[in-house]
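Work Package 3 (structural annotation) set out to generate three-dimensional models for the target panel prioritized at the project kickoff. During this period the team completed the workflow that converts sequence records into discrete structure tokens, so that structures can be stored uniformly alongside our sequence database. As a representative example, we reproduce one entry of 276 residues exactly as it appears in the project archive.
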Amino acid sequence: MSVAMFSWAIAWTNAKIVNEYLSFYNLIFLRFLIGFISIYPFIYRKDNIKILTFKNLKFIIPCSIIFYIYNLSFFMGTHYGYAGKGAVLVTTLNPIITFIIMLFINKRINRKEVFGISLGLLGGLFIMNIFKEGVLHIFHLNNIFFLICAVTWGINTVITNYGQKKINSYQFIFYCYLLTTIISIPFTSISEINLINLNMRFYTNFLLVSLGAMSFGTSVYLYATPRLGPIKASAFIFSVPFLALGTANIFLNEPLSYNVIIGGALSLLAIYIINK
């Protein structure tokens, strides 16, 4: 999970770079096409592919639709806004949203989780520099896409937690990636995808955002969610802001200040407390 979070962190920088080459819709199609192809070997080795039932589809269909919405917002947000700040906003709010949803479902409060989530939120506020810039800058027009990412990923965390109780985890992930690929086809311009003319800068960053962040990172997260529980799994996301801003500083020259270091330390402590 820790390595998966690192792959997510650098994905925000990778996404901003690949946006220079292809449209958002084409990137989503290629990302999920590579995703379900790369997951197939795990299906083949683990078990035979089973026919889906309605009980499985009622989780896979909404999960796939939300995947598409999330990825569209992800690529649009990194294109119009700062990749590092977007990663901070999304990954700070996501565990909070997941916790609130699970609170309504379970109707019980775990004090350790509440304390850890609160500490992670405090760390995120430091990283976002809320105490200096104020809360309103979160709702800047360019950040709307990131807010959509945070909400949709929180919802999907809960859906995948319950969905994998009815179907093998490998197959659940495979079908979600496959269905999202199918959903993306009507919005894709195949004629515009000329991979031969693209350079190594594109290929390197696209492989990191697809094979790295999704085929590996997202698959590990989806697999771990029903085993750790949605709250403990989402707590790992608190580590992404610090890592994302660090990589954005190195590769995109986006600013990195002392508040990021303080917030990063608090976020890592939150992960330890929630998963202790």
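Residues 2-275 form one domain.
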